[in-house]
Amino acid sequence: MTRAHPPSVHKGATCTPVGTLHGPPWRHTEDMRLLDRAGGGLAVRADLLGDIHPAVLRDHMSGELIYSLRTTGSGGVYAGSTEQRERRLLAAAKRYDLVELEIGRDTTPAILAAIPPHHRLLAWYGPSTTSTSLTALLARFSQMAGIPARHYSLTTHAATAEQALAPLRLLHKLNRTNVTAFSVGETGPCGRLLAPWLGAPMVYGRIGGRTDEVPSINRLLRDYPFPAVPQVRHLFGLAGRSVAGSFSPRLHNRAYRALGYPGLYLPIPTTDFLSTWRTFADGLAALGFPLVGGTIEAPYKEAALRLAEVASGAAARAGAANVLVRTESGWRAHTTDPIGVVGALGRAGIQLTGRKAAVVGCGGAGRGAAAGLLRFGVTPTLVNRGQDRGGRAARLLGLDYVPLHRFTPEDYSLIVHATPVREDLVFSLGQLPRDTILVDLAYGRRPTALVDAARRLRLRVIDGWEVLRIVAARQFRLMTGRSMPNFPAPEHLR
Hints:
Rossmann fold; about 35% helix; alpha/beta; 8-stranded parallel β-sheet; 20 strands; TIM Barrel
């Protein structure tokens, strides 16, 4: 089958990162300065913040300022009268570089006469009940294009991966450089970040507010190549239920840039892994961006193994996979969990010989860690809260299993914590000997409860960041055939 080719992106192409301000500007000066250094613009949510005079923002922002008075029907909170709205929009047009006008509601003769086309950002927000097919979006844009504007924006609500692809198909069909289109919803982040490679002139990140659907401007600029839009020939995905906190995109995308490799690594949050992965693989290839590999987070590692036509010996033994690589015959499954723990221990100079080990958590990561220890001569005991999963893992690997409520941590000199729990202690550390080694696979914006408690007790700890660096480097090698540069830990994890 002949693949479609994406619109040509000339060498040195850029898009404008736009931070959407959801909180008082004085609380977010650092993010605004970061955005300004990237040549970005700032969209002010006046429906949330009120009418902020641009002079307040100019100390931190030299880029374009966008005024947005989003209504309740468009995902905002403005519910005032038509007359009040018109007065605010017209006043903003005198001070802001662009004013967001909602199609239909704001495109009245009076407003259009007062706000010239070069100050207009014409926007449409499609509710979840609105059809998101390519045909429907083309018809919607045809209606919008009849009104001259500097920028056009279409935002759909996607309940499925197929719906999340529709805005990308629209961009591919239009092949214009003044239209931004993406979806919000579960699978939306992937399309939002890919849209600039299909001609979208803007990519949005939030400043303030709390949601995993929209990346923060900090993550947008640190994890992805923006404002540059470098050539991309290979897409890689990070699939899981909640992937917004992962540092994998930062590691992989920084490595692509350092090596000049034409890759892009994108998040694919989903609650239906098999359907989403297959839909994106087919849909993105049709747009000229083949999905050639990816990393898989819990709880989809077993499903990833089932998806693959071929599996590595390590993945087959663990009964789970966290890497998928496209080959001529289909997907090949691998697991890097075994090398993560033993590699991090080895890098820290910790000898495994003679240690009595336990692995707490019997999901894909725990089984992989146990398999890795076995390969290096350590026979761990498996520990799990649920007996069904614990017993199954023990039978699969030929290891002993202990229910969590009967687990005695002080009996072990090496403990690997492989559950997703970050904020609470899964087991007590009070009686552990000082020479106990703890490995915590979880990581986040701040140290986990286990790492905090262990450090207070002055125990030796290998945190999730150290394991991630080993795992990510192996994943990078499997997916690209290249070696990943060794990057330092993010500042807040040092």
